Amino acid sequence: MKTSLRVLVSVAVAAGLTALVLWWSGLEPRAVLETLGRLTFATWLPAFGLHVVLYLLRAWRFAILLPGGLRPRPAPFLAVCGAHTMAAFLLPAKLGEATFVLYARRACGVPAAAGLASLVVSRLLDVAVLALGFAVACFALAGSGAFPGIPWFVPLGAGLAATGAGVLWLTARSDLLARVAGAALRILGLGRTRLGAGAALRIEGLAGALRESGGDGRLLRAGLASIPIWLVIFLFCAVLARALGLPAETTLAEATFGSSLAILTSLIPVSAFANFGTLELGWTLGFGVLGVPHDLALATGLGLHAVQLVHIVALGLLSHALLGLATSVSE
User: Fold this and answer.
1) More confident residue, 67 or 234
2) Do the Cβ atoms of 321 and 53 come closer than 8 Å?
3) Residue 138 has pLDDT above 70, yes or no
4) Whether the predicted pLDDT of 209 surpasses 80
5) Distance CA 320, CA 192 (A)
6) What is the longest distance spanned by two Cα atoms in the chain?
7) Average pLDDT over residues 172-177
8) Which of 165, 228, 250, 316 is 20 to 30 A from 133 in CA distance terms?
């Protein structure tokens, strides 16, 4: 009942935030349906293909961060990643993050400490590469000369680049990383789970697992694998947003700028269901800076979020089915 109540609260928060953003932008709800109506099979298929590629790349990076003797079989591990993605996207307060450790242990025999270390390092790499990608977009927009009235692209890009570099440095320092991992457990909500609480109490053991996770060049390889991961994310947003109605001349740098801000605002810890409301706020602000009308920006942001939700749920349910089948076969 407690979990059900939290889900209901998160849905209510998401509905309230989305209603506020709709009111602020002046967008009528029926315009969102009209936006989704622009999507055809031919324009949706590339976006779905990019989403599937993203799952493959993320599973690959998780596997890279596991010691060689613990490398799981690709098929069940891909199902683990798909099921975990849905849980992390839908459950409030990031409680779904804990499912990666649980599923990886049950379906692939990955020890909890190794799975948790892989998860923490992956999330830190995501923050670093997102910041660096955002910085590149700012520099590209400044260099394009298309926005002469915006003088702060370069300072913002410099700050983001410094942040990304700092997180990368921190990721390479297992001693400091162990302390950050403890904070990450609390932020992600894992500290409220039995598994996460145990890891928090054994932070030195986690530090050893983190050192093992990044050893033998695995951290470097995982960092390099993070680049195509985020390139696919930005391409997914650009392809789908243009299909939903953003101007055809929208460049990859512009799409990266708007989607990066949306992803950052979606990290605001307000427990909104599937990040509805927070993501749209960042999307509308980001593309608004670039001259896109607020109502059009919000319509495409809501449309993209809805399509993303359908993808994640569909692939997540398929992954859960495959995990159940694998478990029944093994028994």
Assistant:
1) 234
2) no
3) yes
4) no
5) 24
6) 65
7) 68
8) 316
pLDDT one-digit tens code per residue, 91-132: 765 567 788 988 999 888 888 878 888 888 898 899 999 999
Q: How far apart are CA 79 and CA 103, in angstroms?
A: 9
Q: What is the pLDDT of residues 270-308, one digit of tens each?
A: 656 667 778 888 999 999 999 999 889 999 999 999 999
Tell me the Cα Rg of the chain: 20
**What's the rounded Cα separation, in Å, for the pair 72 and 100?**
13
pLDDT at 197 over 60: no
Half-sphere exposure of residue 36, counting CA atoms within 13 Å on the CB side?
A: 12
Nearest to 209 by CA among 121, 96, 95: 121
Residue 133: domain span = 2-330
Q: How many structural domains comprise the chain? A: 1
Q: Which of 110-119, 146-155, 220-229 has the lowest mean pLDDT?
A: 110-119
Secondary structure string (H, E, C) spanning the chain: CHHHHHHHHHHHHHHHHHHHHHHHHCCCHHHHHHHHHCCCHHHHHHHHHHHHHHHHHHHHHHHHCCCHHHCCCHHHHHHHHHHHHHHHHHCHHHHHHHHHHHHHHHHHCCCHHHHHHHHHHHHHHHHHHHHHHHHHHHHHHHHHCCCCCCCCHHHHHHHHHHHHHHHHHHHHCHHHHHHHHHHHHHHCCHHHCHHHHHHHHCHHHHHHHHHHHHCCCHHHHHHHHHHHHHHHHHHHHHHHHHHHCCCCCCCHHHHHHHHHHHHHHCCCCCCCHHHCCHHHHHHHHHHHHCCCCHHHHHHHHHHHHHHHHHHHHHHHHHHHHHHHHHHHHHC
* Whether pLDDT at 204 is above 80: no
Identity at 88, one-letter amino acid code? A
